[in-house]
Amino acid sequence: MQTRFVVVPAVPVKREVYPRRLGFPAALGEGYDLYDTQEKMRLSLNFATRAQAEFECACRNRSQEGDDAGIVGIG
């Protein structure tokens, strides 16, 4: 069974325009976000460290095992 929430690298808050010939920018945003695999959407919570994001992810996945209540209010 796939977990509902997973940790992903954050995207830059400020969008920069790059010429097409340069390709994808090498730098990602600072920090980490969560991704909801069920709703197919990124939760931009901007955790400073991966450990903080992993902890929040584990809490949300643990609460998902019991019921859907409390997902929004955690944190």
What does this structure look like?
The structure is a single chain. This protein is α+β, with helices and mostly antiparallel strands and 75 residues long. It has a domain at 5-15 and 28-66. It has one helix and three strands, in the order βββα. The protein has one helix at 50-66, and strands spanning 5-9, 32-36, 41-47. A three-stranded antiparallel β-sheet has the order 1-2-3, covered by helices on one side. The longest helix has 17 residues, at 50-66. The radius of gyration is 15 Å and the shape is elongated. It starts with a strand and ends in a 9-residue tail after the last helix.
Give me a quick take on this structure.
This protein is an alpha+beta fold and 75 residues long. It is 23% helix and 23% strand.
